[in-house]
Amino acid sequence: MSDFTVGDVIAERTFPITRDSLVRYAGASGDFNSIHYRDDNAQSVGLPGVLAHGMLTMGLAVQPVIDWMGERGIVLEYQVRFTRPVLVDATEGAAITVVAKIAVTHEESTRIDLTVTAADQTVLGKAQVTVSLT
């Protein structure tokens, strides 16, 4: 673990999200709630428009850490708080940006804090991944 210093950015990535992405995720996850693909249904329940699935956002957020670790480690724990929805415009789509930074190092594990934003707003709070590197 001595290769890392608290505060080091170990990964950064932006994921484009389109309405097509949402349909594919719905098929893979089985979450066909229409707020994820129909503006009229999303608006009928008080939302500003179609939202990305929370679990899709959460899954994308951890991916840069998984890529960085490769086969040299495992995720011990992963947690987030959903703070804002990710609105996915029919034409423009959306982009989720993830910055992964070393927060705490121990001999047996490392905690990585994630800053996850969309449209310049934080969408996941207290996003933390604890990993064990071999």
How would you describe what is shown here?
This protein is α+β, with helices and mostly antiparallel strands and 134 residues long. The protein has a domain at 9-17 and 53-133: Hotdog Thioesterase (Thiol Ester Dehydrase, Chain A, Roll). Helices cover 25% and strands 40% of the residues. The chain contains three helices and five strands; from the N terminus they run E-H-H-H-E-E-E-E. Strands 1-3-4-5-2 form a five-stranded antiparallel beta sheet. 25% of the residues are buried. The model has no long low-confidence stretch (mean pLDDT 96).
What is the topology?
Blueprint lengths: L8 E9 L1 H11 L9 H6 L9 H16 L3 E10 L11 E12 L4 E9 L2 E13 L1
Antiparallel strand pairs: 1-3, 2-5, 3-4, 4-5
